[in-house]
Design brief:
Blueprint lengths: L9 E6 L7 H12 L5 E6 L5 H6 L5 E6 L13 E2 L1 H6 L4 E4 L5 E4 L2 H11 L8 E4 L3 H13 L4 E5 L2 H14 L3 E5 L11 E4 L19 E4 L8 H8 L3 E3 L1 H17 L6 H13 L2
Parallel strand pairs: 1-2, 1-3, 4-6, 7-8, 7-10, 8-9, 10-11, 11-12
Antiparallel strand pairs: 3-5, 5-6
Length: 279
Amino acid sequence: MPTRASEGRRAAVLGSPIAHSLSPVLHRAAYAALGLDDWSYDRFEVDEAALPGFVAELDETWAGLSLTMPLKRAIMPLLDEISDTAASVEAVNTVVLREDGRRFGDNTDIPGMIAALSERGVEKVESAAILGAGATASSALAALARICGGPVTAYVRSEARAEEMRGWGERLGVDVRTADWERAAEAFDAPLVIATTPAGTTNALATAVPDSVGTLFDVLYDPWPTPLAAAWSERGGKVVGGLDLLVHQAVLQVEQMTGVPKGPLAAMRAAGEQALAAR
C-alpha cells in the first residue's frame, strides 16, 4: 500500500484556463484503481498573481499539485527544492508536499515523453525534428537529449524563436539546428517528428506527409486525431498522441504524490479516452 495514503489526502491541478483539464479524470481514476477512496483531486483556476496566496494556504492534508500554463515557471520561487529535470528546462509541472512540510518541484513531462515513446518501441533515434518553439518544445529537447544520438532540427517562425531553441540546445547538450517554418514539411524526413504547436497550426502540413514516414509525436489530444496525425497513420507511420503524454506524466505524478511504486496506467488511459469521447 502507499506509504503516504494512510488517511485521505488532497491534490489538484492549477492553471488558467483550467476548465478543459483532463487531470482530475486521470488522477481520480488512479485513486479508484488503487483503492484510495478518501483521496480527492480537484481543479482550481489560478493565475500567476494568485499563485503565492494559494500555495501559502496549503496545509498538511495536501499531497501535491499539478501545474499547467501559466504557472510552470511562476511556481519555482515558491518551492524549497527542485529536481534537476525541472531545473534543466526551468519548468515545474509537479509539486509534492513532503511530510516535513517542504515543497518539492519536479517535471514529469520529460520522462512522460520518453515513456510514451518507449511504449511504442521508440527508445533511440539518430536524429529528430521539432515543429514549434514554445515551452513544450524545450521539454521535447530535454527528452531528446536522452534518446537522440544526433542533430535535432527545429522549425520555427522567427529568428528570435530560433535563437531561443539554439540556446536550449546548448544548455541541454543537444545539437540543435533551426529552419524557417515555411520549410516545415522537410521535417518529415526525420525518423522522429515532435509536433509541439497549438491546435490547427500543422493542419496545412497534412497534405505534405510522404509515403514513407517514421514516428510522429503530436502533443495535442483534443480534437484527436489531428489532420497531421491522421495523415501519418494513413501512411503507416507510428503515431504517439497527446493523451499518451498526458497519461504517462500523470502516472508519474500519482506515484510521487501517493508513494505507490507503480501507477495504474491502463485505468488512467481508459478514463482519459472515455472522457475525450464524451466531449
